[in-house]
Every structure is written in C-alpha cells, then in structure tokens.
Specification:
Immunoglobulin-like, five-stranded mixed sheet, 18 strands
Length: about 230
C-alpha cells in the first residue's frame, strides 16, 4: 500500500513536470510589421523578426516559410535554450504591387501550443502617378456625336507636377487638361476626355501629358471606345 502511494506520488510529479516543462515560442515585440503608406519606388522593404524561447525547455525551429513576395535570410539559430533569442532578416519586394498588401511568414516549432505561428507583413503601396480606372472608357460612341468620360489622375508623390504640354494622338480627342496646369502633391484630379468621330469602328487614342517631373516626364492616358451609328 505504501509502495503504491509512492508510485502514485512519483507519477504525479512526472506528469506535473511534463505539463510545466515545455518550450514557448514568442515574438519579441509585435507579431506584425506594418510600413503604412509607401511608394513603390521605396522597395524593397526590410525588417528583422526576433523570436524568444520564454519556456523552460529547448525550443526547436523546424522551418521558416516566407509567403509570396518576400524573402528571408536563414534564421541565425534553430535551437533556443530557455531565454535565448533568434533573428530573421526579411526583404519584401513591392515593385509589382499597388494598394494594400498583406504577406505572411510561417514558423513551425516544437512548441506544443504554438507549433505553427504566422508573422504578418503589411504595407499600402502607392505608384507615383495612378489612373483610376486605368483608361478613359467611352464605351459605345455615337458617330458624329460628342461623347465624354472621366477618370481620376492621382499624384501620390510628395512634389507638385506641372504639365508642360498636352498632346493628343487623335484630332478628335479633347480634354480639360491644359498646359501649365499643376497636379498638386497628394492630389486627385478629374480628367475628362471627349471624342467626336465620324469613322466607325474601334477608337483607340491617347492623351499624352508632358511634365516637369524627372521621375514621371510623360503621363499617357488611353482613350478607348467603339464608334457606330445610333440604333
């Protein structure tokens, strides 16, 4: 009977030790990096992820798997004793992105609670000059009748841009943009395109803006539609 109590006591101790002796994966600081608004030309974006074993048993990092668009340097430690930290350098490519993006990096570990943990990378990528939508769509253009459409031209740069000349690829195109007009930094500008054509078929032209910007010396605005007779 006494031996049975001793065995029970030892078993209880072993179970207790097993429960309370385990590795614990934690990020040092936040579990995400948000760069906020950035220009596409600011890329690639870089940051460093630091992790720590806050448990009381060896933490093993089995893998670090980056999502699409980002790359990581090898983690500097895969085995972390209690209290030890490790780091991963991250590079995020944004040269093909436009708008809000969210990417992830997955860590797999021997932490029984957090065996798979995700670190998020966020940014709101802006291109210097943005057209929304991407072209002036006049749709069905009635032959010999002036048709118009509007889009928004946004200057996401930190500098004003001056239009030094306005060129039209087709004599039938007119626009509200004029030489000398200023596209203010951070502004959204309404662009109107008007077409009066006597030729049936596909209409495909351009409004070409010459500017004083070294980064954006030419801004092309496509103008499209289909010219036909009124039904």
């Amino acid at each position: 009977m006494k031996m049975r109590k001793v065995l029970l006591f030892l078993t209880t101790i072993l179970i207790t030790c097993s429960v309370y002796s385990q590795p614990k994966f934690e990020f040092v600081g936040s579990s995400e990096k948000d760069w906020g608004k950035v220009m596409q030309s600011d890329g690639p974006l870089v940051t460093q992820i630091r992790i720590k074993n806050t448990g009381n048993k060896l933490l093993e990092i089995y893998g670090v798997k980056p999502g699409c668009g980002c790359t990581t340097a090898p983690i500097d430690k895969k085995l972390l004793d209690p209290g030890e930290t490790a780091k991963v350098d991250v590079t995020l490519k944004i040269d093909k992105d436009n708008g809000p993006i969210v990417k992830g990096i997955e860590f797999t570990t021997n932490d029984p609670v957090n065996d798979r943990v995700n670190f998020e990378l966020k940014a709101n990528v802006k291109i210097p000059i943005e057209l929304f939508p991407k072209f002036l769509n006049l749709g069905a253009i009635i032959k010999n009748e002036e048709m118009s459409a509007r889009i928004v031209l946004s200057n996401h740069t930190s500098k004003d841009i001056k239009i030094t000349d306005v060129r039209l690829s087709d004599k039938n195109i007119k626009t509200n943009l004029v030489k000398g007009q200023i596209l203010k930094a951070g502004s959204h500008n309404s662009v109107e395109g008007r077409v009066l054509s006597n030729k049936e078929g596909v209409f495909d032209g351009k409004i070409i803006l010459m500017t004083n910007s070294k980064q954006n010396p030419i801004i092309e605005i496509p103008v499209r539609g289909m010219v036909g007779e009124r039904e």
